[in-house]
Amino acid sequence: MKSKIYQLSHTMPAACFVAAAIFLSSCTGKTEQPAAAAAGRGGGGMPPMPVTTAVATLEPAPLEVDVVGTLEASSRVEIKSQVAGQIETVKFTEGQDVTEGQLLFEIDKRPYEDALRQAQAALERDQAQISQAQAAARKDAAQARAADADAKRFTALANEKLVSEQQRLQYATASETAAASVQADEAAVETSRAALKVDQAAVARAQLDITYCEIKAPVAGRTGNLLVHPGNLVKVNDVALVVINRIDPLFVNFNAPERYLATIQRENNARKLPVEIESRDGATLKATGSLAVIDNTVDTQTGTIHLKATVVNPKRQWWPGQFVDVKLMLDPNSRATVVPAEAVQNGQKGTFVYVVKADQTVDARNVSVSRTLEHRAIIESGVQPGEIVVTDGQMMLAPGARVMVTQGAGGNAPAGASGQK
C-alpha cells in the first residue's frame, strides 16, 4: 500500500504542470483575440503607424513607348561576281566608305575579250553572207523575169498552133523553176539575217561580260572584311567578295505592345511619329528619327507589333546590330493620374496602393499601372487625382490600419487631411 501511494505522489506534479499549461494557454488566447481584432478594425488598441504619403495628381504624361531596339543597315549588299575568272586587283580598303559606282574589283578580261573578237568575226561573216545571198537573189529574179516572158510568148504561139505543146511546157517549167530559185534566195537572205542577229547578241554579251570584269559598288556605304583575295578564281554568282552596308540612314527595329497598335496607326496617319534612340553603352549618344514601317501582323507569341524607324547617321556614330533604347512618342500632350512609383506594391491580386482615408485609416486599392515615367507610375484605374497614397511604411500596414503621416515630399497631405477633393 505504501508503494502505490509513493508512485501516485510522483505522478501528480507532472499532471498539475500540464493542466496549468493548458489553462494559461487558454487564458492567453482569450486576451489576445480582442487586441488583434481591434488592430484589424483600426481601433485604439494599436498606435498609428508612421508613414510617408503623397497626393495623386493629374499631370502631363506624354504617351510614349520605351523599349529596346536594334540598329540595321538601311541597305545591305553582298558583292558577287557575274562572270567566272581570276581576281586580278582589289581597288578598296577594308572598312572604307565607298561611293555608288566606285571600282572595287578587277577580273581577268582576256577570255572575254577573245570571245568578243570571235563574235565580231562571226558577225562580219554573217554580213558577207547576207550580201552574197542578196546578190544571188537579184540574179535569180532577173532570170525569173526573162523565163516568165519566154513562157508567156510560147504560150501565145502554142495557142496559134505555131509551136508545139512540148515547147510551151518547156518554157513554162523554166519560168516556174526560176521563180522557185528567187524564193530560195529570199529565204537564204532571211536565214543570214537571223544568224546576224544571233551573232550581234553574242557580241553584246561578250561586251557585257567585259564590263562585268570590273565590279563596281551598286550603292554607297561602308565595306566590311575582304572575303576573297586577289589571285583566287571565282564563279558566277558564287560566294560574296565583300559586303557593303549603307549606314546613313539606319533602320531601328523594335517591338511595341499590341495595346498601342490602334494609337500608333491613328497618330501615324496624322503625322510623322518621332522616334528617339539612346545608346546603352554609357556614351549617352542620342539621335532622332521617324517611324517608317508598321508590320502587317501582330506576333501572337509575344503580343507585340514590329516597327521600323529611320534615323540619320551622318557622323557614323551608330553601327548596325547595336542595341539602343528606343522611345516612340505617341501623344506629347496627354495627361494622366500620377503617383510616385514607390507607392505601387505587388500583391497576390496584382498591383495595389494604400490610400489614406479621411479617418486616417488606410484602404488597399488595386490599381492598373500603364507604365512608369521618370520614377512616376501612370495609373489607368484605381486611384483618382487628389487621393492620398502611402509611399513609405507599407510593410507594417494592413487594410483598416490607422496611420500617422510623419514626413512627405512633393504634395503630401497633412495628417488631418481628408484625402478627397
Count the beta strands.
22
Q: What is the element string, with H for helices and E for strands?
A: HEEEEEEHHEEEEHEEEEEEEEEEEE
Computed Rg: 49 Å
Q: State the low-pLDDT regions, or none.
A: 1-44, 409-421
What is the arithmetic mean of pLDDT?
Answer: 82
Distance between the termini: 86 Å
Structural class: alpha+beta
Sheet-strand content, in percent, reads 25-35%
Q: Which shape, going by the Cα principal axes? A: elongated
Give the helix proportion (percent range). Answer: 25-40%
The description of the largest β-sheet is: 6 strands, mixed
What is the number of helical segments per DSSP (H or I, 4+ residues)?
4
Short précis:
This protein is α+β, with helices and mostly antiparallel strands. It has helices spanning 2-40, 110-159, 165-212, 261-270; strands spanning 49-55, 57-60, 63-79, 85-90, 97-98, 103-107, 214-216, 221-223, 233-234, 242-257, 274-279, 286-299, 304-311, 323-331, 335-340, 345-347, 350-356, 362-366, 368-372, 376-381, 388-392, 403-408. Strands 1, 16, 17, 18, 21 and 22 form a six-stranded mixed beta sheet that branches. It has a six-stranded antiparallel barrel with strand order 3-10-13-12-11-14. The chain has a four-stranded antiparallel beta sheet with strand order 2-15-20-19, with no helix packed on it.
